[in-house]
Design brief:
With about 375 residues, this protein is α/β, with parallel strands linked by helices. It has twelve helices and 14 strands. Strands 2-10-9-8-5-3-4 form a seven-stranded mixed sheet, with helices on both faces. Strands 11-14-13 form a three-stranded antiparallel sheet, with helices on one face. The protein has a two-stranded parallel sheet with strand order 1-12. About 45% of the residues are buried. Bound molecules: pyridoxal-5'-phosphate.
């Protein structure tokens, strides 16, 4: 008996998102070894394409770490934080907290700038904190997947830079879906993942180190994530680890699709489908957690109405309609659904499908309540 799935799940949760058919086909290409000249050509292509998707500054090093988004986070932290580093981390949700924990594990003295879950960080709050606390690095999550909030990275990065700190940014739920300009915004190191707005399966973490970060790197305690060793592999073709050819094919094809669509056109598509979804929610008397102006286009934190069993709705969507949406995390468990409209999952067809299914799931619970 095969346990392989024989269904095409409609993935509208916080990730992974749907994988485009072209990317699926790319993964059926023959296996290459990690040092094959054809493979090296693909790695060079990925470096160039990632540099453009991140909009990295001249002299940056953009590449992909073998691992999920968390490995991107750990690569940035492991190479820029060491015992004695003073780190300020904006914590406006679950992933800001993970970043703070990561910095602590690598020996930093961490000052958290706690922000109410569901709200964006005010750059003035960071300015006030940095007037009293020294920071070698400032860590910020651009798109907080746990709350559906977009942090104003450009303004926050400018404040951090005014105080001489390196700026580390989590773009796991924004790269390829929201405007992000690593070079122009003065971001020193940034990481993402393949399974959200880029539209490939999970397993690689695109990362970029800008010139200042490359210069200020610390002695890395991790072998697997050591930037010097990764540069040896990506730039000087020295064996470090056996990179997955399947995932490399997928990422290269996903990046080619992005360039064909156009990065800005892709951001606009994400914006449009978010608004289409909001309109539909409004018609069903549903709303989202973050206030206007602080909302992600890629991840919608939908408030669960009173007296509705939120887990039952998710179960019904999955079993009857083959649609996956996500639950709330941490203090927001039970209070929100997380609806991802990312990459190939950001389409009017899927928005309309989800709205119809959601309406039916809610109606069936209300009928049971009134029976
Ligand atoms: C903002 C953010 N950072 C980091 C991660 C960790 O990524 P992964 O689960 O791919 O390791 C996630 C995952 O959803 C995320 O949303």
């Amino acid at each position: 008996m095969s346990l392989l799935p024989d269904v095409d799940r409609i993935l509208l949760g916080p990730g992974p998102s749907m994988t485009a058919p072209r990317v699926m086909r790319a993964m059926a290409s023959p296996t290459l070894s990690h040092l094959d000249p054809l493979f090296i050509r693909l790695l060079d292509d990925i470096r160039a394409r990632l540099g453009r998707v991140f909009r990295a500054a001249e002299g940056s090093f953009a590449f992909a770490v073998s691992g999920t988004g968390t490995s991107g986070m750990e690569t940035v932290v492991a190479n820029l934080v060491q015992p004695g580093t003073q780190a300020v981390v904006v914590v406006s949700g679950y992933f800001g907290d993970r970043l703070a924990q990561m910095c602590e594990r690598y020996g930093a003295t961490v000052t958290r700038l706690d922000v109410e879950w569901g709200r964006a960080c005010d750059p003035d709050a960071l300015r006030r904190l940095l007037a009293t606390v020294k920071a070698d690095v400032v860590g910020i999550v651009h798109a907080e997947t746990s709350t559906g909030v977009l942090n104003p990275i450009e303004a926050l990065a400018a404040v951090a830079r005014e105080h001489g700190a390196l700026v580390l940014v989590d773009a796991v739920t924004s790269l390829g879906g929201h405007p992000l300009d690593v070079g122009a915004w003065g971001i020193d190191a940034c990481y993402s993942c393949t399974q959200k707005c880029l539209g490939a399966p999970s397993g690689l973490a695109p990362v970029v180190f800008g010139p200042r970060a490359l210069e200020k790197r610390v002695k890395c305690r991790s072998f697997y994530l050591d930037l010097h060793l990764l540069e040896d592999y990506w730039l000087r073709r020295k064996y470090h680890h056996t990179m997955s050819s399947v995932l490399v094919y997928a990422l290269d094809e996903a990046l080619a699709i992005i360039e064909e669509e156009g990065l800005e056109a892709r951001w606009t598509r994400h914006e449009r489908n978010h608004h289409l979804f909001l309109e539909g929610l409004h018609a069903c008397h549903l709303g989202v957690l973050p206030p206007e102006g602080e909302r992600l286009w890629t991840l919608n934190a939908v408030r669960v109405p009173q007296a509705i069993d939120e887990a039952l709705v998710r179960k019904q969507l999955l079993e009857e309609f083959n649609i996956e949406i996500g639950a709330g995390l941490g203090p927001l468990a039970g209070q929100i659904w997380r609806v991802g409209l990312m990459g190939a999952s950001s389409s009017p067809r899927l928005v309309v499908l989800l709205l119809g299914a959601l309406e039916r799931a809610l109606a069936s619970q209300k009928r049971t309540l009134h029976a």
